[in-house]
Amino acid sequence: MAVANAIPDGVEAGEEDIFPDPFAVAFGEQLRSSPKGVEKQMAALVTSPA
Question: Are 25 and 19 in contact (CB under 8 A)?
């Protein structure tokens, strides 16, 4: 229920990016501190063979 509430709260607060759960919060912090690092991690997930 907290995630469902966090999304409209973020919209009402005018937040551009909303991170509604602990995993998303950690991802957002990593994204803010090292956008290129996150980009490389995501690219590795997409391009690595399964």
Answer: yes
